[in-house]
Structures are given as C-alpha cells and as structure tokens.
Amino acid sequence: MLKIYGLQKMTLLDYPGHVACTVFLNACNFRCPYCHNYELVTGDVPPVMEAEKLLAFLGKRKGLLDGVAITGGEPCLHPELPELIQSIRDLGFGVKLDTNGCYPAMLGRLLREGLVDYVAMDIKNSPERYAGTVGLKAVDLEPVRESVRLLMASGIDYEFRTTVVDELHSEEDFDRIGQWIQGAKRYYLQAFTDRDTVPFGGLHAPSAEKMKNCLARVKPWVEAAQLRGVDE
Could you tell me what percent of the chain has a pLDDT over 90? Predict the structure, then answer.
C-alpha cells in the first residue's frame, strides 16, 4: 500500500464543510515554479508513515474528524490510490481529492466507483501559457481537458481553482480560462504566497486590484466564482 509523506492532523480549510485531516502523497509530473510542496515532487523527503499507520490514526479519530483530504504531489499518479481511499471510506470518512487533472483514467475510475466525495482540480493557466506555468517545455492538455469534462458531468461536488502568480498570469488569461471551463459549478482564484519551500525566487502575489480584475473576467463564464484568501 502507499507510503504517506505528510499528515496534517486537523484542518477546517482543506475540505470544505468538514473537519478533516490532510494526507500528502509524493511525486508529480509538473514542476510548477511556485509549488509549496516541491520537496514532495522531487522526492527529497522520506515518507513519514506507512498507509497502515494512517489507517490506525484515522480509526482513533472517529467522531473527531469526518473527512480526509488527499493531496500531493499528484495523488492520481499512484495505482494504489483506489485501495487507500476504499480503506479510508471503510472507516466512515468522506474523501476529498486534489488533482492537476493529468490522469483522467484514474480520476474516472474514482468517480465511477464512488470513491471521492469532493474533487479540487487545478487549472494552472490559459491553454497557451500552461507549459511555462507548470515548469515544462510542452504539455499535452487533452488529459486535463478530459478531466474537466469528467468532473462537470459527474454530479459530485467539485471545484476548479487557480493559484495566481503576478509574473505568470495576466488578466486576459482569465478570459480564456473562463471559456475553457464554461458552465463550471465552482471556481476559486487564490493568490500565490511565498514560502521557503517554493523552488524559484522572484515570484510575487498579484495586487488585490489585479485579483479582483481576474475574477471579473472569469465570472461571466461559471456558475460561481470567488477569491479565496483575498477580500473582494
């Protein structure tokens, strides 16, 4: 079973409407220059526990927690993910998944088998600027597009979200993002915040005015769009 690379024992933020813990898995196919968990991406840190120990922890938290948020890295990289989630659900917890959308086959399986209750999928940027935003020379966006389609047709709770970096995103990008996810149930823009774990320096959060302008660009295209962590 999977190894666990981080555990936040309680959060009121990571799984909307739930008292949850957050489980961190390793590895990612992207190299986003603004990533907060880059040490998980590169494999520079050892696991903190085996999955069995996580399940034992959860068994003792029944009644205190009601959900588990699974993040990374990119969780859908791991073939063992459905087994881990099923074990968590067997203990009575809801499951929220964070994903970059590059693995629609895995996402589709999780949706078909009813293994996830909420999915938060990153939309990194407008299609034309995607590769540079995720730190690659080129990226095939068709899997990401398929994941968007899967979520919008799934009937489960989901959100799309973009971390906005002043140097990487223009206001015009959000016209294209809005067209891409037209009709989406929920979309959040969150401002980049710098941390010691961010791999590249010289990146900054947009001004509050720019964030509001980006939100205004995307609002006509989706059912609900909000800033997260920024006063509107």
Answer: 91
Give this prediction's pTM. Answer: 0.96
The partner residues of 98 in beta bridges, in order of sequence, read: 120
At 116, is the secondary structure helix, strand, or coil? coil
Q: What b/e string do you get for 24-40 counting C-beta neighbours within 10 Å, with b at 16 or more?
A: bbbebbbebbbbbbbbb
Model confidence pLDDT, tens digit, residues 162-220: 999 999 999 999 999 999 999 999 999 999 998 877 877 789 999 999 999 999 999 99
- Of 20 and 229, more confident: 20
Q: Does 101 sit behind a cis peptide bond, omega within 30 degrees of 0 on the bond before it? A: no
Q: How many residues does the chain have?
A: 232
User: How many Cα atoms sit within 13 Å of 42 on the Cβ side?
Assistant: 13
Contact 40, 72 (CB under 8 A): yes
Tally of CA atoms within 13 A in the half-sphere of 201 that contains its CB:
1
Q: Topology of domain 3-228, per CATH? A: TIM Barrel (3.20.20)
- Whether 95 and 89 have beta carbons less than 8 Å apart is answered as yes
User: Which residue spans within 165-210 are E strands per DSSP?
Assistant: 187-191
Domain boundaries, the chain: 3-228
Per DSSP, helices labelled H in 7-161 are 38-42, 51-59, 81-90, 104-112, 130-133, 142-154
